[in-house]
Design a protein that fits this description.
By secondary structure, the chain is an all-alpha fold. The protein contains 30 helices and 3 strands. It has a 3-stranded antiparallel beta sheet. A hairpin with a 4-residue loop joins strand 2 and strand 3. Helix 15 packs antiparallel against helix 16, helix 19 runs parallel beside helix 21 and helix 23 runs antiparallel to helix 24. The longest helix has 20 residues. The protein is elongated.
């Protein structure tokens, strides 16, 4: 009869059996109570379908009994209904007891009361305690049914109690495992969802929302973090007023979150508000106000609003005239970002001016090791290169190299691309000795660093050989090119076109030394390699023929030299015609 009355629902049967066992009553007595309650639901016109009523009644009967016989257990039950259905921390009721109703406040002075209440709730099948984790859980259907059964004022009171109690757990949670902290955010998210239509005026509740938002942000749960931070903002605006530094900080964080969500119009509006709050609360020269101005510039910039972004940067720099030394890094950042904006528009002269200004500002505060200074130096060098100011670019890259070496050491891999750029500039500036030193440094790095691409090593070898030839140090150039040739033959095989290219370079070196006998065999090998493929490289072949002509001239064979030169000319014309 009982199973039929409860529509055979497992959860309803479980709760009914637990009630009968816990109270020592009979099945018939339970059926009588059940039917009386069902009749009341009909009379109050809140009865629904049979299954829904069965769950509602079997959840409500133990709650009614506990409210009368054990108020502390009843209040504990109600409080659990506003939390997530699992991993409810028992410490919430002891640490946050001062924020709870009088019945639960006793738990702080007498922890045994909590244990007794939990045993009672477990006996009714409503709550389960996990001893190892000191957490509670309750069936989600029971939780929702009991929560919905409460009048609205009671629901609001329960949510507020839970949030205030959680505030007292925050110091403990800072030392807790990441998984424990993350589970706590689930409770806070539920409480935020339940209270979305209510307004709070409690700073501790704002702190709870902000703590959870920070943790979600760390986990890259940006949308969820943004929602909680908005709840915190509403409370702080109500309690502190709209013009307060804390309100400004929260607005700035909301700017960042909305930018991460690519919700740029909202980020722009929030950034304007943050700027206004900080300027009024702290003054326009305060770092927070200048920081808000830069945030607004970046939001404008990402939306393509270049003129508005430039205006913000210019205003920040104008304010900087009256700012103290502590604002110098911010003003340097403003100058550097404005320079980058001009560089994007190919206004390189303006970019150069502002990069120089940024460096001057940076160097009055942080040292050259600072990553922002290094970025500024790298960008200024790029601007000089765009204007073909090679000497200035080299000087800036040397400063960047010094900064990187101080920060990372002289053998760090991140330094080598800078050395390579300097070497290329020194070649262009015909600083042969300095360029050779740079390539020797690169060569030493590539030779002694596992995992480097052999192409980098070969490039360095050939550059060193070229520079040695330029300075008529032929023996050194020959030694370096032989190394390059050996590496290519081992890696690619003796017939590869890249091997042929190195053979030609080595042959040209011998010709520069007036040694045609050494050059000719190498040129013949290279010629065979280039002519064997399905599509002969006519340009490479013409170069080889010209070099063979030079070798013939060196031996006094002028007719053969003329014939070879004519063949090379014919190949070049064929290439041009095609």
């Amino acid at each position: 009869a009982l199973a039929h009355e409860l529509a055979g629902l497992p959860i309803a049967l479980h709760l009914a059996a637990a009630y009968i066992k816990a109270t020592g009553g009979s099945i018939q007595e339970y059926l009588t109570m059940y039917r009386d309650y069902a009749t009341r639901l009909v009379q109050l016109k809140v009865s629904k379908d049979r299954c829904t009523d069965a769950i509602a009644i079997t959840c409500s009967l133990p709650a009614i009994y506990l409210k009368r016989a054990h108020p502390l257990a009843a209040e504990l039950l109600w409080l659990c209904t506003v939390l997530a259905h699992t991993a409810i921390p028992q410490d919430l009721f002891s640490q946050g007891a001062a924020e709870l109703v009088p019945e639960l406040q006793e738990v702080a002075h007498n922890p045994v009361l909590l244990d007794e209440a939990l045993v009672l709730l477990h006996s009714f099948g409503l709550v389960t305690a996990q001893e190892t984790t000191r957490t509670l859980s309750m069936p989600s259907m029971v939780r929702e049914t009991l929560y919905q059964a409460q009048p609205l004022p009671k629901q609001q009171s329960l949510v507020e109690q839970a949030l205030r109690a959680l505030y007292h757990l925050l110091p403990v949670l800072e030392q807790a495992a990441p998984a424990v902290r993350l589970r706590t955010t689930v409770h806070i998210q539920r409480l935020a969802a339940l209270s979305s239509i209510w307004t709070f005026s409690s700073e501790p509740i704002a702190d709870v929302f902000c703590w959870a938002a920070s943790l979600l942000w760390e986990r890259q749960l940006i949308q969820e973090a943004e929602m909680l931070l908005r709840r915190a903002l509403a409370i702080w605006e109500r309690t502190l007023g709209f013009v307060h530094p804390t309100v400004g900080i929260v607005l700035q964080n909301l700017v960042t979150l909305n930018a991460l969500l690519k919700n740029y119009p909202e980020a722009e509006a929030l950034s304007q508000r943050a700027l206004l709050v900080h300027a009024r609360a702290l003054g326009v020269t305060d770092p927070a106000a200048i920081g808000s101005l830069l945030d607004l510039a970046r939001i404008y910039r990402v939306q393509g609003k270049t003129r508005e972004a430039q205006a913000c940067y210019q205003e920040a720099l104008k304010i900087g005239t009256y700012a103290s030394i502590r604002e110098q890094p911010l003003l340097a950042t403003a100058s550097c970002e404005l320079a980058a904006l001009y560089a994007e528009e190919e206004k390189y002269q303006q970019a150069e001016v502002y990069y120089q200004r940024a460096l001057a500002l940076y160097e009055t505060a942080p040292g050259l090791e600072d990553s922002r200074v290094q970025e500024c130096l790298a960008e200024l060098a790029a601007v000089y290169l765009q204007q073909e100011k090679l000497a200035e670019a080299e000087e800036v890259l040397q400063r960047l190299l010094t900064a990187k070496e101080r920060a990372l050491g002289t053998e760090h891999a991140d330094i080598m691309p800078i050395v390579q750029k300097i070497a290329l500039l020194e070649l262009a500036l015909e600083k042969w000795g300095q360029a050779e030193q740079a390539y020797e440094r690169l060569l030493a790095f590539y030779e002694h660093t596992p995992g480097q691409e052999y192409a980098d090593l070969l490039s360095c070898l050939e550059q060193v050989a070229m520079l040695s030839t330029q300075q008529k140090r032929f023996e050194q150039a020959e030694s370096v090119l032989q190394r390059a040739l050996n590496i290519r033959e081992q890696v690619l095989g003796v017939d590869h076109p890249d091997v042929a290219a190195t053979l030609v370079k080595l042959a040209e070196l011998y010709l520069a030394r007036h040694d045609p006998e050494a050059a000719e065999p190498l040129l013949q090998r290279a010629l065979i390699s280039y002519t064997q493929g399905p599509a002969p490289d006519l340009v490479a072949i013409s170069i080889i023929l010209e070099n063979l002509a030079v070798a013939s001239v060196e031996r006094g064979e002028t007719e053969q030299a003329a014939s070879l030169s004519e063949s090379a000319r014919a190949l070049r014309e064929q290439v041009l015609d095609s």
